[in-house]
Amino acid sequence: MSEPTGAAEQGIRFPRMTIQFCTQCKWMLRAAYFAQELLSTFSTSLGEVSLQPSTGGAFIVTIHHQPDQAQQTVSTVLWDRKAEGGFPETKELKRRVRDVIEPGRHLGHVDGHDRPAGSEHAAARKDDAAPAAGDALADKPCRDCN
């Protein structure tokens, strides 16, 4: 899931987020909404959130970061619509970003009152989560893309 992408380029602030979305499926507004939510929650903790137009039914959220001030940049896919079976709930995406960039941070109402420590809880939440609205079509190929 994580892979090195090379040395940090000068002038680019990390961590960076990319939201790759299918233009044929008309998911730009959804991608922009997630970008706005992430920027509102994490503010200056994120160096950048970018939208990347794509095709083929893609909706992939990736974080590019430098763990422990390392010179090497690591890219981690936080959400892939095809692999996860649909779109993320906003609070789940925020939790996954938090687990990478600020693991000790409490996200207020997003976390609730009983947040267990560690990112291993994120996997348990994924299994227990009810499907989000619009996920009924997640396993079907996009008609516009195919």
Keyphrases for this structure?
146 residues, alpha+beta, Glutaredoxin, 5-stranded mixed sheet, 25% strand, globular, redox-active center
Number of helical runs? 4
Strand order, largest beta sheet: 1-5-4-2-3
The overall average pLDDT, rounded, is 80
Q: Determine the fraction of residues in helical runs and give it as a percent range.
A: 25-40%
The end-to-end span amounts to 26 Å
CATH class of the domain at 16-101: Alpha Beta
Biggest sheet record: 5 strands, mixed
Query: Strand pairing plus helix content: what structural class?
Result: alpha+beta
Please indicate the percent range of residues in DSSP E strands (runs of 2 or more): 15-25%
Overall radius of gyration: 15 Å
Let me know the number of strands: 5
What are the secondary-structure elements, in order, as H or E? Answer: EEHEEEHHH
CATH architecture verdict of the domain at 16-101: 3-Layer(aba) Sandwich
- Globally, the shape reads globular
In CATH, what is the homologous superfamily of the domain at 16-101? Glutaredoxin
Low-confidence stretches: 118-131
Region (Disordered): 104-146
Keywords: Redox-active center
Biased composition (Basic and acidic residues): 104-129, 137-146
Organism: Metarhizium rileyi (strain RCEF 4871)
